[in-house]
Q: What sequence folds into this?
């Protein structure tokens, strides 16, 4: 049996299946309600039930007291609806709504996907989840007090493991550690989520993504989130990804992206090589990635652009898209590899 939940302030509506908690259903349907532990301990998901009844579920008695229950409060990570509900809670759409946390994590799996790119999967402690917006990054905290920043490449709904794309970088302390010494089961510490590079979901403008190298990682997170949400809500913003790398081998997850293109009519992929090898037998686009966008669009006045990669690419894209193609300044979103993030991309 399914029940209907209405969020009072936004009038957003979603369905809860038998046995699901309010939070599980909201996340499944692509609505970002705040959460932390997801097991009734932290109180982050606490909200009010304005109409209807729930089974409050098993939770820490200090996190939700009897007095609070009688006042209509519930922990949405534990509360299972027994009727249709009208609830009051915050919905997350801006970065300041999400608490930045420091957490330990374990290296669950490492996959080398190109000669200089390792995908690592991090597992948080059993009772922890990291809430974030698609496109944000985390800092890996190093023993010497330094940190290295990496974009999260998994979508927020797919958070059993946090996925990072680590490029080996001469002199990059963490990257070299990943490629030479790191082993599965190693323990790391992270802080996050961080950054303001995330999908603006209050717009239905078509999107152009421009990524260079492992700048693909946050774009992957955003695209997987957008596909997920559009499947749930029946929306379909047009999206095109221009991914610029040096050689064909650097398109380290090309097959995944090509499969998206087959599966989603609203998505189109343009790979661009800057130093194609004769052995690549490349028939596709060549040159600088942002120039491919300039070639394809006379005007960007009705678009949003999300650019992630080297500062030189991001700056050239910003300058030329705004100056030459009338992209509104506030529709350009970027995450450049600044010096402190130089290992990240
Ligand atoms: S998310 Fe921690 S109590 Fe619900």
A:
């Amino acid at each position: 049996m399914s029940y209907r939940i209405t969020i009072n302030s936004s009038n957003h509506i979603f369905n809860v299946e038998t046995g699901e908690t309010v939070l599980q259903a909201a996340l499944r349907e692509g609505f970002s309600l705040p959460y932390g532990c997801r097991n009734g301990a932290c109180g982050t998901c606490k909200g009010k039930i304005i109409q209807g009844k729930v089974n409050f579920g098993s939770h820490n008695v200090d996190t939700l007291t009897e007095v609070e229950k009688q006042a209509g409060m519930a922990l949405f990570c534990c509360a299972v609806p027994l009727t249709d509900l009208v609830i009051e809670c915050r919905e997350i759409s801006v970065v300041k709504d999400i608490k930045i946390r420091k957490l330990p994590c374990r290296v669950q799996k490492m996959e080398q996907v190109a000669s200089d790119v390792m995908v690592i999967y991090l597992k948080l402690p059993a009772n922890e989840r990291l809430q974030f917006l698609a496109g944000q990054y985390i800092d890996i905290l190093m023993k010497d007090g330094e940190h290295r920043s990496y974009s999260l490449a998994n979508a927020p709904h797919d958070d059993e493991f946090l996925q990072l794309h680590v490029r080996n970088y001469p002199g990059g302390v963490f990257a070299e550690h990943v490629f030479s010494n790191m082993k599965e089961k190693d323990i790391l510490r992270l802080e996050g989520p961080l950054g303001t590079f995330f999908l603006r979901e209050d717009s239905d403008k078509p999107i152009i993504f421009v990524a260079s190298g492992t700048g693909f990682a946050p774009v992957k997170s955003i695209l997987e989130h957008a596909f997920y949400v559009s499947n749930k809500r029946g929306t379909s913003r047009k999206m095109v990804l221009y991914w610029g790398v040096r050689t064909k081998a650097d398109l380290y997850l090309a097959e995944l992206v090509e499969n998206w293109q087959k599966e989603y009519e609203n998505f189109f992929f343009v790979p661009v090589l800057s130093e194609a090898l004769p052995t690549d037998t490349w028939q596709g686009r060549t040159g600088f990635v942002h120039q491919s966008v300039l070639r394809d669009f006379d005007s960007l006045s009705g678009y949003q652009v999300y650019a992630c990669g080297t500062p030189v690419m991001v700056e050239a894209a910003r300058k030329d898209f705004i100056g030459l193609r009338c992209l509104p300044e506030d529709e350009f979103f970027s995450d450049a590899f600044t010096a402190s993030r130089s290992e990240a991309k």
